[in-house]
C-alpha cells in the first residue's frame, strides 16, 4: 500500500488519490448482454438451458429447483452452519423489522387529511451470484427484507449447481421459487419472464460485470424491471487514531481486499506511526491467507492517507463516500454526527466489517463507487413503495378552494380550476336549497 | 371516450385496453441530447448561452438570476397569488415535515447495536419546465422537501424568461441559486457543473422528451447525477359507483386531459348509466375550456371500462397502476386497503385531483406509465439517504463471533473470519492477563 501525506498534495493530486478505477464495461459487454436478453425474450426456457450449458457447463434437469431438492439440501447441511445461518437470520430480521415505517397521517388544514401509506412491491427477483464459494449471506440480505415487507412473489435465481447453504437460507426466508440460472440470462428471465420463471417488478442483488450490465439494461426499459441500485467494486475506508490496534485494522483492510482484485482499501489516519504499524501488520497477515493473491492485487491500488487531524479524516472520508466505513478511534461515537456519504458505518475496535457482512443485523448490500452520496443502504424501504392519500370534507374543500383556484389560474389550467369550482358550486346550491326549505 | 365492457374482452383485448401508448423517444432524441450534453461539458456557460439563444430565443444578461431580479419579481406579484402560494407552501410543508423518519436503533443481540440514520443529500438540482404557463406548483413540490431535508445546496434551473411566480416560490423555499437555462442543457449543467452552475448529486423535476432523455443519460453515467424517477405522460383513473356525481367526475377527467395530448384518462365503473352520464358531462364541460383542443386529443385515446362490480374495478386499477387514482364511491375509505400500485389516491367526492396538484399537502411528482408498481410518490425520503451503523461491545463480539466465523468459513473468506478471530484472541489474552495478575 502506498502512503501519501494529504497536505503535501495539490488539488488535482488529491482528486487522483480518491479517484476510483474506471470500470471497463465497454461496448463489448453491452452488446453481448443485449444479445443474451434478446435470446431469452425470444426462446424463453430453451435459451436459459442453452446459455446455462454454455456459461456454467452444466445441464440441470429442470430450470426450477424442486421442493425435494431443497429438502435434500437441508438434510445434508451440518448443524453448525445451520445454527450460524439461523442466528444471522434472527439478527437481520430483528433490525429490518425495526425499519417498519410509522404511518403518517396529518390534517394540513381543518378538513384536509393527507396520508403516506406503504405497500410491498408485489413481485421481486433476487439474484445470488455463483463463483468460487456459495453466498448464503446474500440470500439473507435480500430474502429477509422481502419476507418482512410481505412481497407476494419472491423469485431466486442462481447459477447451478446451487449450494446447499443457499437453498437452506431460501427456505428460512420462505422462498419457494428457485431457478437454476445465473448471469445476464437470469436477469433477463426475471425482467421479462419465461415459461418457468415468473416476471418480476424489481430485481435485487450483486453480480459480475455481465449481471450489472443486464440489470442496467432491463431497468432502462419500462417493460423490463426496476433494480436495487447501481453497482461497483467493494470498498472499505478506515479512520484510525493513535488508540487503534494496528492488527485489527490490518485484518479489516485484508477482509475487504480478499473480495476481489478491484476492491478498494483506504486507511486515513493523522498518525504516521500507526500507518507504518498497519502496513507491516498487513504484510504479516497476508502470508497466511488462502486468497492472498487476490488481496495483493487489491492492495496494489489501495492507499494510506496521512491527514492533519481526525477532522480532516472525516472531511476526506465524506468526500470519498466509502461503501464501508470503520472508525477505530478513542471516541468513535463522537465522530458519527460528522460522518456523511457512507453505506454502513462500524464504530469502535469491536465492530469489524465482517460482522456487518454476515450477522450483526445490518444489510451488506450497500451503495459503492461514490453512489453513497445519493443512494441508501438496502433496507425494508427498497421492497416497498410509498403512496399518498388525501381526503377532504366539504368544509375542507371550501376552505382550500380559493388557493387551488388562484394557482390554477396562474398556471392557465381552466379544467384544474373547474374541478374545484363545480364542487363548491354544488355545495353552495345545496346550502341555499336547505336555507330555502 | 370509447366505452368497453370488461367481461366481453379477451385476455389480449384487456391487455390492449390498459396498454399505455408507446413513448416515441427514438434514437434521434437520444443523439441530439447526447450532443447537447457533450457541448455543455466542453464549453460550459458559453454553450448554455448559445443553446438558450437557439432553443428559447432569448439572451439573458447572465446565466444566474440575481437577488435584485428576485426582489423585483416579488414586488411585482399580486397579493392574491402570493397568499395562495403561501397557503400551499404551508400545507405541503406540514405534510412533508410529518414524513421525518423515526430513528431506528435496536440491540439485535446483547452487545450488538444496529442503527439506521438519515442524512440529507448534499447538493440537489430542481428542474422547472417552461412552456405555455409558469409552474410555481412544481417549485413547491421540489423546493419544500429539499428545504425540510436540509440539503446544503439547492440549484434551480428553468428556461428564461423565468416567471415571477417561480421566483417568488423559490424565495419561499430558501432557494438562492437560480439559473436561466432549460432543456437538456439545464440537466447537463446540473449533472456536470459549469463556471456558473454548481454540479449537483441528484436532479429532480418533470420535463419534455429531451429533458427526460437527458436525465436518463446523466443517471447512467456515474460521474453524472442520480435522478428522482423515470417519467411518462400524466394519467388519472377514476373508480365510480352509482352514488358518484357525474359532473365532478367529468371535471376530474378533463383536468387530467388538459395536461397534454398524451395524457391518459380512464373511468372504471360497474354502472353503465353512470358511464353515459359522465360521457355526456365531459362533452358539455369541454366546450368552455381554453385548452379544449388539447383535452380532446387526450380523450381520443382514453377509455371508460364497465366492470362487474367495485372489486373488479379495484383489480383493474391495480393492474393498470395509475399515477392519480380518484375513488368516488359511497364508502371510498373501505376500498383503500385493497388499492395498490397508485401514485396518489383521492378519496371521495370532495377530493378532486387538482387539490393534490396544488395545495392539499401531498406531492404532485408521482410515478406514472406503470412505474407505480415499484416507485414511490416523491417525498422527503427522496432528498435524503439512509446509512446503517453498528457498534459492538467486546461481549457482543464474543457472542456473535462463532456465527461470523462459521459463515466466513462456508463462503471461503479467510480474512473475513480473521478480522473477528484476531479480536477474540486479543480479548482472551487480556482476560488471561487479568486473571494472572
Automatic annotation (TrEMBL), chains A, B:
Catalyses which reaction(s): L-histidinol + 2 NAD(+) + H2O = L-histidine + 2 NADH + 3 H(+)
A matching Pfam family: Histidinol_dh
Cellular component per GO, a single term: cytosol
GO terms assigned for molecular function: histidinol dehydrogenase activity; NAD binding; zinc ion binding
Binding site for NAD(+): 127, 185, 208
InterPro entries according to UniProt: Ald_DH/histidinol_DH, Histidinol_DH_CS, Histidinol_DH_monofunct, Hstdl_DH
EC number: 1.1.1.23
GO biological process: L-histidine biosynthetic process
Binding-site residues, substrate: 234, 256, 259, 324, 357, 411, 416
Annotated active site: 323-324
Domain of life: Bacteria
Family annotation (SUPFAM superfamilies): ALDH-like
Free-text remark on how the cofactor is bound: Binds 1 zinc ion per subunit.
Biological role stated in the UniProt entry: Catalyzes the sequential NAD-dependent oxidations of L-histidinol to L-histidinaldehyde and then to L-histidine.
UniProt-listed PANTHER family: HISTIDINE BIOSYNTHESIS TRIFUNCTIONAL PROTEIN (PTHR21256:SF2), HISTIDINOL DEHYDROGENASE HDH (PTHR21256)
Annotated NCBIfam families: hisD
HAMAP family: HisD
Protein's recorded name: Histidinol dehydrogenase
